Amino acid sequence: MNSSKTRGSSHSSLETVFNIVLLGKAGTGKSASANTILAAENTHRSILPTLITGNSHQDSNTQFKSYPSSTPVTTMCEVKMMKVGAQFAVVDTPDFFYEEDCVQEGQLEQCKKYCQPGQCVVLLVIQLGRFTDGERGILENLEKLLGWKIRDSTIVLFTHGEDLHCDVEEFIGERSHLKHIVEACGNRYHVFKNTSKDSNQAMALIKKFPNFFPKFTSKHSSSQCCLS
After folding, report:
1. Does the residue 6 lie in any domain?
2. pLDDT, mean of residues 54-72
3. Would you say residue 24 lies in a domain?
4. CA distances from 134 to 25, 91, 138 (A)
5. Could you tell me the CATH number of the domain that includes residue 186?
6. What tens digit of pLDDT does each residue of 101-159 get?
7. CA dist., res. 158 & res. 146, Å (int)
8. Which of 4, 210, 22 is nearest to 87 (CA)?
9. Considering the entire predicted model, what is its pTM?
10. What's residue 58's pLDDT?
11. Is 222's pLDDT higher than 50?
């Protein structure tokens, strides 16, 4: 992916950084899912300092802001570093299609810095049982905004898996709109139970990366063993 020196940290040497970029509509659980991913480091310990770049937000907190709200909580790109064998930049993004408050063009440009072909894994976050009209065509619309075929690097991340009362494959198969998105992304998907504090579900996601993107991870063989 990309090499980055984390400012303000004790890691002075350049390390391979795997970018995990979460995209999707407001209210789907992007920030909560990002926090679930960060929690995977708990067993390996030590969150690295938040990455400081351009106008992206950084602070000393180890989690992204996430709470119920009638308006988007995340209004700018936020990046936090973690290390689970390999080093990861977890990127939380605003809803680029929120109609009542146009997202600044600068935020889209910040997102593009992390979301580049061959440099990231994209998590398209969709809440199970809450697919809205605004999410129809979301994959194609995001590709237009970002300027490349993100589906080739995307895993569909379904949230609120605790609300699912049937097999996830059955659930997807019975809903053509979800089936279209999953198939467009090479049938790559994962389910998070957002009320669960079990970080193993995040580790299970991370361990899928080499299988889902073998060419991608083979470029970074030194870190691949940490993901398998």
Report:
1. no
2. 58
3. yes
4. 8, 22, 7
5. 3.40.50.300
6. 555 678 889 999 999 998 899 999 999 888 777 788 999 999 999 999 999 999 999 99
7. 22
8. 4
9. 0.81
10. 42
11. no
Flag whether 221 is in a domain: no
In the chain, the number of structural domains is 1
Asked if residue 5 belongs to a domain, the reply is no
Tokens representing 85 are 């064998």
Average pLDDT over residues 6-18: 51
Q: Supply the DSSP symbol for 174.
A: T
In DSSP notation, 79-113 reads EEEEEESEEEEEEE---TT-TTSPPPHHHHHHHHH
Residue carrying structure tokens 């609120």: 160
Q: Tokens 């999410």 identify what position?
A: 135
Would you tell me the crossing angle of helices 138-146 and 176-184 to the nearest 10 degrees?
40
Q: 96, 127 in Cβ contact below 8 A? A: no
Structure tokens at 27: 């209210």
Exposure b/e, 120-152, CB count within 10 A at least 16 = b: bbbbbbbbbeebeeebeebbeebbeebeeebbe
Q: What are phi and psi of 136, to 5 degrees?
A: -70, 125
Contact by Cβ (8 Å): 23, 142: yes
**Which amino acid, 169?**
E
pLDDT reported for residue 46: 44
H or E element: which one contains 3?
A: strand 2-4
Residue 138, domain extent? 13-212
